[in-house]
Amino acid sequence: MKAYLIRRLLLVIPTFLGISMISFAVIQLAPGSPIYMKLRTAEQGISTDANTQEILRQTKELYGLDQPIPIQYLKWLGRLVTLDFGESFKDHRPVRDKILEALPITLQLNIISIFLVYLISIPIGVYSSTHQRTWSDTFITIGLFVLYSMPSFWVAMLLLYFFGGGEWFNWFPVSGMNSIGAENFSWVQWLVDRAWHLVLPVFCLTYGGLAGLSRYARSGMIEVIRQDYIRTARAYGFSEKTVVFKYAMRNSLIPIITLLGTLLPALLGGSVIIESIFSIPGMGFRGFDALLSRDYPMIMGLLAVSALLTLIGLLLSDLLYAIADPRIKFEQPD
Predict the structure, then answer these.
(1) Less Cβ around it within 10 Å: N or C end of the chain?
(2) What are the chain's domains?
(3) What tens digit of pLDDT does each residue of 54-94 get?
(4) pTM
């Protein structure tokens, strides 16, 4: 296990370099320029093309955009070693500070969502697999398919309309992470207020993954309970509860653990829409704003953090394999 962990950690480095290189090239080659975005207002007052071109040249030189793309990438990579993502083109603040402000908010949303997804979906999948072709299984299956088919932005708008001060109920806040003046609350009041603000966005981030993962849990459980060793356990007289939760459930977790490596980056991507709708200043909200303003350093900083979280998720999935199934060995055979 130790040798495998070292190999995977070493593999993270070239993988991260490849992701960052491709991302940097795609961003630089995309239509639009931060120079034109930044000088759009100024250009309206410039009457001659010579003045316009001179201002563009000086601005490109100021931001280092006059250099070849490989040189720009190498300079960015050199700063990355010291965790320096550069300065934002939009407000000239260090990108690292802006990410440190946004990352805890996004992780807070996603960690709660992932916990709820696994906490709810696994019992649903186990129950549905052990009650096949019953009315309860049919009802659960239809309900999960309906949840999975509903886009998150549409659900978010419905929740805002019905429960966020529309024409129906004013039960939940519609924006932000805390109420105005929350810094003066006691820690208990602050915690309750934060949880109150998180109800709607966390629900929007949870229901889709819950519906999908429940189906994986059901199919994996059905495959396991048809195995010969499960029949043998029942023949020995073990109770159905022992057979399901001690022998079958653990072995059915492999496909669910596999999805853990992709669920974290998927939630980070989905939080772009949810954070924008609920005006939550997380990484998704900052990333969308950076794309609109062509803020290259901010975009690359967010992509670097997202890529690192994705690689960590994949590594965590591999390590959990051995915990769920001791038959899986990562060491090379002698």
Answers:
(1) C
(2) 33-82 (no CATH), 99-324 (1.10.3720.10)
(3) 656 666 666 666 677 788 888 888 888 888 888 887 788 88
(4) 0.77
Radius of gyration of the chain (CA): 25
Distance CA 179, CA 177 (A): 7
Sign for the pseudo-dihedral over CA of 88, 90, 93, 95: negative
One-character DSSP codes across 171-214: -S--SSSS-TTGGGS-HHHHHHHHHHHHHHHHHHHHHHHHHHHH
CB 251 within 8 A of CB 224: yes
Query: How many CB atoms sit inside 10 A of residue 38's CB?
Result: 17
Cβ(83)–Cβ(304) under 8 Å? Answer: no
Give residue-wise pLDDT tens across range 7-31.
Answer: 777 888 888 888 888 888 887 777 6
Q: Indicate the DSSP class of residue 248.
A: I
Using CB atoms within 10 A of its CB, is residue 284 exposed (0-12), middle (13-18) or buried (19+)?
buried
